């Protein structure tokens, strides 16, 4: 079990975990909606007539969820109008579905509870949320739930094509001198958003690729703060991917 920050307040991590789970509960159905065929073919069998080869042990709802993901995975054409392949959407659904099962089981295991029964994504998420209380005495577990919920919520946001959060950062870009520094918490990075900005780095794509923006990852923030006339504490704070900021925007 890994965690990003060792010395944070468990109550804060639990709050963040809850907010990320809520976000995921709102976004995941949207992601399933992206996969659903826009209209049903009249000749198609009703959904509850047979998925004969479905693995045993899964609930009907789980099978339907998996089937919907598989249909548009390019394996089965769904009627006369073949829906566009949306691999990134079905990949995200698969990744999040697996992640939620693993998280649910890991939390139960860590709390020495019996293995959780099978359920759909939303039900499992609600179950994990309900265990944040019993998990309160275990900062590692709480942080793990928060980190996993955030990772999956971010995966969902990306697959839905939603814009990622951007936070304005004080100071001037050391390369172009503009007030154009922005923190992108979802990728833990600071970028200069001035399209004309070019650095002198031989390997940096901002010289050759017009779409590339010069970026500073975590190791370069102290130097960036010093050279931009900014503030390292503010800069670091701006790059925290907080659920509170996410639900406010
Ligand atoms: Zn710049
Ligand atoms: Zn550059």
UniProtKB/TrEMBL annotation:
It comes from the Bacteria. Residues 36-61 are annotated as: Disordered. This is Uncharacterized protein.
């Amino acid at each position: 079990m890994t965690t990003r920050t060792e010395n944070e307040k468990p109550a804060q991590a639990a709050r963040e975990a809850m907010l990320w789970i809520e976000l995921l509960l709102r976004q995941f159905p949207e992601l399933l909606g992206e996969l659903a065929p826009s209209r049903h073919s009249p000749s198609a069998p009703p959904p509850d007539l047979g998925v004969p080869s479905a693995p045993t042990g899964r609930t009907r709802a789980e099978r339907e969820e998996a089937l919907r993901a598989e249909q548009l995975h390019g394996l089965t054409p769904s009627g006369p109008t073949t829906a566009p392949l949306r691999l990134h959407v079905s990949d995200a659904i698969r990744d999040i579905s697996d992640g939620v099962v693993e998280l649910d089981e890991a939390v139960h295991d860590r709390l020495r509870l019996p293995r959780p029964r099978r359920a759909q994504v939303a039900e499992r998420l609600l179950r994990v949320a309900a265990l944040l209380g019993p998990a309160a005495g275990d900062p590692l577990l709480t942080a793990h739930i928060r980190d996993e919920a955030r990772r999956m919520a971010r995966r969902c946001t990306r697959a839905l094509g939603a814009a990622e959060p951007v936070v304005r950062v004080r100071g001037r870009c050391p390369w172009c001198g503009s007030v154009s520094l922005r923190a992108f918490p979802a990728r833990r990075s600071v970028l200069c958003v001035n399209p004309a900005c070019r650095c002198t780095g031989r390997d940096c794509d901002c010289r050759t690729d017009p779409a590339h923006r010069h970026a500073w990852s975590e190791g370069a923030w102290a130097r960036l703060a010093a050279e931009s006339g900014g503030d390292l504490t503010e800069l670091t704070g701006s790059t925290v991917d907080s659920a509170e900021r996410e639900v406010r925007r």
